[in-house]
Fold this sequence. Notes:
Protein name: MULE transposase domain-containing protein
Organism: Camponotus floridanus
Shape: globular
Largest sheet: 2 strands, parallel
Distance between the termini: 18 Å
Low-confidence stretches: none
Strand order of the largest sheet: 1-2
Helix content: 40-55%
Number of strands: 2
Oligomer: single chain
Number of helices: 3
Order of helices and strands: HHEHE
Mean pLDDT: 91
Structural class: mainly alpha
Amino acid sequence: IATVFVLCESRTKVLYRAIWEKVIKLAPALQNNVKFIMVDYEKAAIATLHEFFPVAAIHG
């Protein structure tokens, strides 16, 4: 089970995009292989995850 845990001072789409761009740069295959994502109910996080992982089931 792969896990990414990030503590943030703000909750914006700009920040979440920067986080996922960096993660995908470090592990490019991740974008095509993620099937399930569990996240809190932060709307900006969920919207950004849909952008980067369009086929993943996102729950939060």
